[in-house]
Amino acid sequence: MTFTDDRTAVSDKRAAEIAGTSRHRLRYWEKTDLITPDVERKISPRNIVRLYSLARLVELAVAAELRHQGVSLQQIRHILAYLRDQGYEAPLRELRFARSGERVLFQHPDGTWEESGRPFQGLIIQVINLEEIRLRVRERLGRREADAGMIEKRRKVQASKSVFRGTRVPVEAVRGYLEAGKSTEEILAAFPSLTEEDIEAVKSAASAVA
Amino acid sequence: MLERRREGLGGADDDAVAIYADDRHAVLITHDVDATRRRRRFTFGRHVLLRCHQLEAVALLERHFDEVVKLVRLRGVGVYEVTRAGVTSWPPRYEID
């Protein structure tokens, strides 16, 4: 089976972390139709699941970066509306954006820079590097290195049993593999999101009990 | 499989994983009794609960694979429980908390 980017999805909480913004802000962007989740499903009156794809995550990260650079939401909305009128479906991930003083510019695929309706010639101070953002988003999708060897319990994950932090793998499952005499390599092959530190954590806990 | 690479749902809760699977018309295969119980109360998507040790999962599913596929195709949305004895299907229910 080949995994491609279109299989990627994260919850709103993770999306906010990855994009470098807050969940509250994502909710506001959704409410005002700036960037909406790819999937939104109400399971109960209090539980709405929102999922963001990799493409949408890049858009969120670019919008967050623009906001971080002091561009107002109103400006972003205005530019996006203009670019959509120009035929761009997802301008935030299709074009490069930059700032020159208070002005926000974007670069068309032919290399020309524009400031909403006016060709731009001047000094560009700060360019938002789209490739860098894509790379950063991809890197943040993975499990954090600091989570290796850490065990936790989370509500609504494997019946609140102990799992390895940043995964949904129950500690109990790895314990079962160890009790069946499986090697660390065999366990890592069965659970590729785990690391040797995770297996060591289970072994240490077992020897401490014994 | 969601754990396999960087699909992003590694740390997600049960509901997010269930919605993800349903959105892709995938069948969610799990050992998680608690999550499956919630889906039996408020059903969406197709869930196969394996009642066995993790290490026996492949063998158990292989043994009942044809029956599971047949039932899932026939009944669609619902929960399917697989034990050594066979497959039980639970029709959809929509009880809201």
Characterize the structure shown.
With 210 residues, chain A is of the alpha+beta class. Chain A folds into 2 domains: 5-141, Multidrug-efflux Transporter Regulator, Chain: A, Domain 2 (Orthogonal Bundle), CATH 1.10.1660.10; 147-209, Winged helix-like DNA-binding domain superfamily/Winged helix DNA-binding domain (Arc Repressor Mutant, subunit A), CATH 1.10.10.10. Chain A contains 9 helices and 10 strands. Chain A has helices at 12-19, 23-31, 54-68, 73-85, 91-94, 130-141, 171-179, 184-190, 196-209, and strands at 9-11, 39-44, 47-53, 96-100, 103-107, 113-115, 118-119, 126-128, 151-153, 162-164. In chain A, the strands form 3 sheets. A 5-stranded antiparallel beta sheet of chain A has the order 7-6-5-4-8. A 3-stranded antiparallel beta sheet of chain A has the order 1-3-2. In chain A, strands 9-10 form a two-stranded antiparallel ribbon. In chain A, helix 3 (54-68) crosses helix 6. Chain B has 97 residues and is of the alpha/beta class. Chain B has one domain (14-90). Chain B is 39% helix and 21% strand. Chain B has helices at 14-23, 33-41, 57-75, and strands at residues 27-30, 46-50, 78-83, 86-90. Chain A binds chain B through residues 1, 3, 7-11, 14, 39, 41, 43-47, 49, 51, 54, 138, 141-143, 154-160, 165-169, 173, 176-177, 180, 182, 191-193, and chain B through 1-17, 19-20, 23-24, 31-35, 42, 44, 53-55, 96-97.
